[in-house]
Amino acid sequence: MPIPTPCSQGMTYPKEFGSKAHASLYGLQSTTKLMLAEVPKTIKSANLDALVVDQMDLATGTVAEMLGLPFIHFSTSAPIYQSSEVPPIWFPWRYSQSPVAQRRNFVGNIFMRRFLEPVFSLLNQQRQSWGLRPFSSINDTISPRALITQVPEFLDFPASSKPKQLFYTGPFFDGHGRRAIKFPWERLTDKPTIYASMGTRQNDESHIFHMIAEACKDIDAQLVISTGGNLTEFGSLAGNPIVVPYAPQPELLSKASLTITHAGANTTLESLSNGVPLVAIPVADDQPGIAARIEWAGAGTVVPFKNVSTENLRKAVRDVLENPVYRTVARKIQTIIQKKNGLELAADIAESALK
C-alpha cells in the first residue's frame, strides 16, 4: 500500500476508512457525549472507590480524573497506543522495522488523530470546563496505573515504546456465564471441522457466507457456519454446510481444524486457546490489526475484505489446513495461554494497580 501523506488542504482518509469506520466513529462520538453527561452522577450515587474502564471508552477516565478516583484500563483487543514502531490497530499493515514502515505508521497515527477529532473535541471541551489538561493523542488517555490486555504478548507486535504500564495477561474468559445454545451435534461427521463466524455486529453481507461455502465445498472437511443471528434467509449454500444463527463456539472450537473469522478478538483468542489456526477476513474496527497480528505470529493467513473471492478463500483455506506450521504455531500459543489464567492474572494486576 502506498504511504498516505497529509495534504495542505486537509486529509484524504485511506481507503480502509469506509462507511463502517465512519459508523463506528459516530457511535463512539455519541457514546462519549452520553458518558460525559451521565457517568459523573452515576459514580457519585454509587459511592465508588475506583473504576475499571474499557480502553475504547475514552470518556470515563476523564470523569474519574475529575472526581479524583483511581482507574485502570483494560482492553479485550490488542492494546491501543500510538507509536511509529507499530501500525495503528485499525490498519491492516504488516509489521516491519524499516524506516519506510515507521514513516507509514507515523502518518497513519496522524490520520487516526484527525479521524478521531470529533471525539477529542468533545473530551477536551469537557476537560477544559473541569480544569483538566487537554488530550492530544490516544496515549494521553491511557490510565497512568495500568492498561491490561487479554491479548498474549506472543500475539502482539514488538515495540520498545510500549506504555510502561501495559500488562499482557491472556484471555479474560473462564467458560462461565454463557447461555446454553442448541446445536445439531448429530449432524457432525468424522471429517475435520471448519468453523466459520463473522461475528454478531458487522456480518450483514450474506455473499461472504456464500463464498465461504463455495470455497469449502470440495475440501474434505465439514463446514459449520454461525451467522451471528443477523441473517435469516440467504438461500441454499454450496456443499450443504451446517448453518445456525448462533453456535456453542467453545465446544465447536475444541473439535475444529480451522476457523474462518472476521478476526474479532474473542473468536481469535478462543480459537487459539484451542490450538486452532485461522483464516481471517477483517471487516472494520480493530479487526484489520488483529488479522495482521495473526499473520505476523504465523497462526493463520489473511484475506482482505476488499479482495474476498471464492478462489482466494479456497486457496487460503487449503494453505492453512495443509501446512502444518500454522497448527504448530496455534498450539504453541495455546500452551502459552494455558500456562496463564488470564482472568485471574488480570484481577491480581488490577488489584495491585488500584491500591
Key words describing this protein structure:
Rossmann fold, 4-stranded parallel sheet, 12 helices, 10 strands, globular, 6-stranded parallel sheet, alpha/beta, 355 residues, 11% strand, disordered N terminus
Task: Set out the fold topology.
Elements: H1 19-46, E1 51-54, H2 60-67, E2 71-75, H3 99-115, H4 117-129, H5 138-141, E3 147-149, E4 166-168, E5 193-197, H6 206-216, E6 222-226, E7 242-244, H7 249-253, E8 256-261, H8 265-273, E9 278-280, H9 287-297, E10 300-302, H10 310-322, H11 324-339, H12 342-354
Parallel strand pairs: 1-2, 2-3, 3-4, 5-6, 5-8, 6-7, 8-9, 9-10
Helix pairs in contact: 1-2, 1-4, 6-10
Descriptive report:
The chain starts with 18 loop residues before the first helix and ends with a helix. The protein contains 12 helices and 10 strands. The relative contact order is 0.13. The protein is of the alpha/beta class and 355 residues long. Mean pLDDT is 89; it is low at 1-14. The chain has 2 domains: 19-170 and 344-354, Rossmann fold (3-Layer(aba) Sandwich); 185-339, Glycogen Phosphorylase B (Rossmann fold). It has a 6-stranded parallel sheet with strand order 7-6-5-8-9-10, with helices on both faces. The protein has a 4-stranded parallel sheet with strand order 1-2-3-4, sandwiched between helices.
